[in-house]
Design the sequence.
């Protein structure tokens, strides 16, 4: 018969098969974890997109309120985003925006203003050049987002003539 090491429980041939089975199991677990990470990453990106739509909508609503609540019935846009936080055109300052929100895509407060020719701020956008996942199903005021090449193309603008 063959030589068998009495200190080993399994013959050498069985040990080789066991090694291959364990190696195969490790590879399968690795592939499953990689797949789960990809799904999680996509899911997290979708959550950031939803947050970007919400925060951008908050800026848009704040610009609308600022514009429509001009003293003496004279509508005007702010000259800085800080004016949305504290509108000093009134004896008691008004707040049109609760706080300066972090851009969910970049993770910092780096909103880029969209300026009218006279320098007033009519909108904001994220400076992120990442490609959006969402390509359809936008609300009417954001229908143009379906054509966006990056998040920087998602422009949150208030124009009174378009907000009817």
Sequence:
């Amino acid at each position: 018969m063959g030589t068998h090491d009495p200190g080993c429980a399994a013959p050498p041939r069985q040990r080789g098969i066991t090694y291959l089975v364990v190696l195969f199991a490790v590879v399968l677990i690795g592939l499953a974890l990689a797949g789960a990470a990809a799904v999680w990453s996509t899911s997290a990106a979708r959550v950031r997109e939803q947050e970007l739509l919400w925060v951008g909508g908050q800026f848009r609503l704040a610009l609308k309120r600022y514009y429509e609540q001009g003293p003496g019935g004279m509508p005007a846009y702010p000259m800085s985003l800080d004016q949305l936080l504290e509108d000093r055109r009134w004896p008691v300052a008004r707040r049109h925006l609760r706080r300066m929100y972090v851009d969910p895509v970049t993770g910092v407060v780096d909103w880029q203003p969209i300026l009218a020719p006279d320098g007033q701020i009519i909108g904001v956008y994220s400076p992120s050049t990442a490609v959006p996942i969402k390509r359809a199903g936008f609300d009417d005021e954001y229908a143009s987002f379906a054509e966006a090449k990056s998040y920087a193309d998602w422009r949150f603008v208030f124009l009174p003539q378009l907000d009817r």
Summary: The chain has one domain: 12-162. The CA atoms of residues 2 and 11 lie 10 Å apart.
